[in-house]
Amino acid sequence: MTTEPVAAEDVFSALADPTRRRLLELLSERGDATATELAGDLPVSRQAVVKHLVVLDGAGLVTARRDGRERRYQVRPDALAATARWMNQVAAQWSSRLTAIKRLAEQAEGD
Amino acid sequence: MTTEPVAAEDVFSALADPTRRRLLELLSERGDATATELAGDLPVSRQAVVKHLVVLDGAGLVTARRDGRERRYQVRPDALAATARWMNQVAAQWSSRLTAIKRLAEQAEGD
DNA sequence: TTCTCGTGCAACCCTGTGGTTGCACCAGAA
DNA sequence: TTCTGGTGCAACCACAGGGTTGCACGAGAA
What we know:
Two copies of one chain form a homodimer. In chain A, 68% of the residues lie in helices and 13% in strands. By secondary structure, chain A is an alpha+beta fold. Chain A has one domain (8-110): Winged helix-like DNA-binding domain superfamily/Winged helix DNA-binding domain (Arc Repressor Mutant, subunit A). In chain A, strand 2 (62-67) and strand 3 form a beta hairpin. In chain A, helix 1 runs antiparallel to helix 4 (46-58). Chain A binds a DNA duplex through residues 17, 19, 34-36, 44-48, 50-52, 55, 68-71.
């Protein structure tokens, strides 16, 4: 289960690859799909797609389930939502740091 | 000078590296610093730090200015804020897609 | 003018990773 | 039972990227 504290490391590097972002798009549009199907819409082999899906799964962004002899992947709404919230926190943290910087700069001028 | 709109590609991969995230932290705390100074607080060489700073600059997250024979780097508040906003947009986009998925799923059940 | 010391370049090394191909395996269809 | 097609390994290849070392250059201090 990978629905807990999002790991900056994994999420950012997972999202850094264009093919993986595309995969998230495709899965979002279709609801779910197999690696073979996804490979049909991408300029890479099925195996390459599988590798990307493994990375996305590691980052908690997608999940998979067996369906007969197929393996269907789908995005994890909750994980994506959590990631979005987490990004906001990062942004907020930056903001507070920047505020602190400005304050210091102004104090320095005041001296 | 690299002051363009945030590129998913660059931002995500820039933020994917732990050392670079640490650099952003250090710069946020100090306001500004040289590569040599930053290397003093990290387990890597000055040259390694310089390379990371180049990447961060490429993503528009930091900027540098000459100060005598020194080159002082600092975070780009505006760019960071823009990135935060952009992340929110990505999150929102995901949300709408997920909503669409759920709607489709429910319709399918209804049939 | 000479000495110092931070920069900027460049050459290298090694690991990670995105991509490929080949093949064995197995569940469902015939 | 046999055939078929999607999975799951595993071996391999090429290149990007994080890290290092060495050295020339140049601005400010002495």
